[in-house]
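Deliverable D5.2: sample structural annotation.
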Amino acid sequence: MTPVFRQIMTLTGLTLDGAGVVIVAVGSFLSVARFLLRRRMDFNESYRILREDVGRAILLGLEFLIAGDIIRSVVVDPTLLNIITLGLIVLIRTFLSMTLQLEVEGRWPWQRRSEASGGRPPV
């Protein structure tokens, strides 16, 4: 692997990591701003929407962070230790993603919408 290619892949991985962090931060900020602008709505409903919005921002950010980890661990420095570390990171982040999706959407990723809502269309 050429040094230039390795540098490009390292920069790509770091860029994806940065994008993931920005998505989580900006998404959380916008979610809170939206929450504060909903003064007329019931507080419990506003709070539920806030949690869903922040959860979605975290889910999207996690996808970018995982992509950055994969590129850096597999393409840039494919040692056995890095691959094992990557596997553990992906397992942890996948668990987080699944539990966040359950909380945000009320269903597991493998469930169709009709199964989770008892045949009713989503609200």
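Annotation notes: The longest helix spans residues 3-37. The chain has a mean pLDDT of 84.
The annotation will be released with the project's public dataset once the embargo ends.
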